[in-house]
């Protein structure tokens, strides 16, 4: 694989905390575990992991639990961040750290790429180009999981893409602290965040989800999970919702997740 002499991309702020990406990791292990077990020498990349390697270490542990043969490579532009990862990698078989960027300097096309809180600093056009660049480097069966979350991981939204483009969008929240589903809007990926306006599909989805949340208010006596499940079921009457495993159904909804097809939120272009 051809390698650039200079990493492609910009250094991120590097903010990270333990368990910040637990929701995305849990979802990825559940929905992509079969894929990771089905290919020879599966490789997962954690792109732009930040100032600490902790979330890459957690990513490695959670995915190896469902795909023991998986190798994980953490990639960062900043040399000091790479050094911090290399200082601990010997303790984690199958985990390594390299310097790089969107060019993905690994020895084979990855089965999975995770890029969280990486594209927030780019403009929308650059984010679309990054999606194209990253998906072109995937294994033919591979996926890209790209999204954003808040500082402690209570609110997150991510898009799953394959080499043909975006396939699904997942909204995930810590339900006891959620006031309304549209509180997730600030976590929309860069390709969608500026589209949360009247006339765009993502705006309609979130507005209707808020209405469904209000309708489901009586379920709050049974807890936030019951209210979320009822709201998702109400939303499904008017919007396409992934309602079957592994992406949907009550087992996923009770975790504070909602996954919809990309077509449910795709921007008007």
What's the layout of helices and strands?
Blueprint: H1 22-38, E1 43-47, H2 54-64, E2 71-76, H3 79-86, E3 95-99, E4 112-116, H4 124-136, E5 143-149, E6 155-162, E7 165-173, H5 190-193, H6 201-215, H7 224-235, H8 250-253, E8 257-261
Parallel strand pairs: 1-2, 1-4, 2-3, 4-5
Antiparallel strand pairs: 5-6, 6-7, 7-8
Helix pairs in contact: 1-2, 6-7
CATH classification class of the largest domain? Alpha Beta
Using only C-alpha atoms, the radius of gyration works out to 18 Å
Instruction: Domain count, please report it.
Output: 2
> Which descriptor suits the 3D outline?
globular
Separate helix tally: 8
CATH topology of the largest domain: Rossmann fold
State the share of residues found in helices, binned by percent: 25-40%
CATH superfamily of the largest domain: Vaccinia Virus protein VP39
Strand elements, count: 8
Structural class: alpha/beta
Low-confidence stretches: none
How far is the N terminus from the C terminus? 33 Å
**Largest sheet report:** 8 strands, mixed
Average pLDDT confidence is 95
User: Which sequence of SSEs, written as H and E, runs from N to C?
Assistant: HEHEHEEHEEEHHHHE
Report what the structure shows.
Strand 1, helix 2 (54-64) and strand 2 (71-76) form a beta-alpha-beta unit. The chain is α/β, with parallel strands linked by helices. An eight-stranded mixed sheet has the order 3-2-1-4-5-6-7-8, sandwiched between helices. It folds into two domains: 22-171, 3-Layer(aba) Sandwich (Rossmann fold); 175-262, no CATH class. The two termini are 33 Å apart. 31% of the residues lie in helices and 19% in strands. The chain is globular and about 55 Å long.
């Amino acid at each position: 694989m051809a390698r650039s002499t200079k990493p492609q991309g910009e250094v991120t702020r590097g903010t990270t905390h333990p368990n910040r990406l637990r929701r995305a990791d849990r979802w990825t292990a559940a929905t992509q575990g079969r894929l990771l077990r089905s290919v020879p020498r599966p490789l997962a990349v954690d792109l732009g992991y930040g100032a600490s390697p902790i979330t890459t270490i957690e990513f490695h542990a959670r995915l190896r639990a469902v795909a023991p043969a998986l190798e994980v490579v953490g990639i960062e532009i900043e040399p000091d961040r790479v050094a911090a990862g290399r200082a601990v990698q010997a303790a984690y078989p199958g985990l390594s750290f390299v310097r790089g960027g969107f060019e993905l300097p690994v020895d084979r096309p990855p089965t999975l790429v995770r890029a969280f809180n990486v594209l927030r600093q780019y403009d929308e056009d650059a984010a679309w180009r990054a999606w194209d660049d990253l998906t072109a480097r995937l294994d033919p069966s591979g996926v890209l999981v790209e999204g954003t979350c808040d500082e402690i991981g209570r609110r997150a939204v991510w898009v799953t893409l394959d080499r043909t483009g975006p396939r699904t969008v997942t909204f995930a929240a810590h339900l006891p602290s959620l006031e309304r589903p549209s509180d997730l809007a600030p976590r929309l990926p860069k390709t969608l965040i500026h589209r949360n306006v009247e006339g765009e599909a993502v705006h309609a989805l979130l507005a209707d989800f808020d209405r469904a949340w209000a309708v489901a208010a009586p379920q709050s006596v049974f807890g936030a999970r019951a209210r979320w499940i009822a709201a998702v079921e109400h939303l499904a009457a008017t919007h396409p919702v992934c309602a079957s495993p592994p992406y949907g159904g009550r087992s996923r909804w009770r975790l504070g997740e909602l996954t919809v097809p990309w077509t449910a939120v795709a921007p008007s272009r």
